[in-house]
Amino acid sequence: MRKQIISINGVDISIPEYFQKVDSMPGDPENSVPYEVRSENAACIVFVSAEDYSKALPREQEELVNGIRHYLADNQGLIEVVEKNDYVFSIVKNLKEPHGVQYILTYQKYCNDFIINIQGYFEEIGVTGQRDSLVYALVKDKESIGDDESPFKGWSCDPYDKSNRKGALMNISEQARFDELFPGLPLSICRELVRCLTDGEN
User: Fold this and answer.
1) Omega of the bond prior to 183 within 30 degrees of 0, cis?
2) N or C: which end of the chain has fewer CB within 10 A?
3) Upper half-sphere CA count for residue 199 (Cβ side, 13 Å)
4) Nearest C-alpha neighbor of 58 from the set 32, 31, 90, 30
5) Could you list the pLDDT tens digit for every one of the 202 residues in the chain?
6) In whole angstroms, what is the distance from residue 158 CA to residue 163 CA?
7) How far, in Å, CA of 103 to CA of 130, rounded?
8) 191: number of CA atoms within 13 Å, CB side?
9) Residue 49 in 3-state DSSP?
10) Strand-pair partners of 103
11) Nearest 5°: phi and psi at 117?
12) How far apart are CA 199 and CA 15, in angstroms?
């Protein structure tokens, strides 16, 4: 993956080269710099800014997971939450109306006296549901998905609480192992950005 370096308050971070800096629009987060990328099936925009520590997310994973889950709507669900020494990030699924999925990334890197904050939105466009459909067909028999009563039994699960059945649960197709099969789709682009930001630690 080819990278570009951008500097925030004197701190360099890496993002994929194909993200293009664009002009800010009314309603964009204050003092943020927007970058976007579009493919045949994805429209993605991220806002990069420097924030003070009053806007920091919790730095303990369980607290972060519980805090995010508290604010999720019925059409949303957790995909991934990671806490490391100098950064945290979360990916949340958001079901759109009348169809399609958007993935929302929140990434924060802790610097000496400020936080680099990245808020990203990665949305399906064009033909939607391709990843779900293709992976379901691929794994249905191999991973014993479904039964006579429910064809999608075992397909979806909260990655941090298997007893939770509320909201838009993560499904098998959204696991990172399938990203390489769908490089131009929103979740794959989102995770590639995360890998770039974290130097491939995840």
Assistant:
1) no
2) N
3) 6
4) 90
5) 899 999 999 999 999 999 999 999 999 999 999 999 999 999 999 999 999 999 999 989 999 999 999 999 999 999 999 999 999 999 999 999 888 999 999 999 999 999 999 999 999 999 999 999 999 999 988 888 888 788 888 999 999 999 999 999 999 999 999 999 999 999 999 999 999 999 855 5
6) 8
7) 15
8) 20
9) strand
10) 93, 122
11) -115, 130
12) 10
- Cα separation, 175 vs 159, in Å, equals 10
- Cite the DSSP H helix spans in the chain: 61-71, 130-139, 186-197
Residue with tokens 């014993």: 144
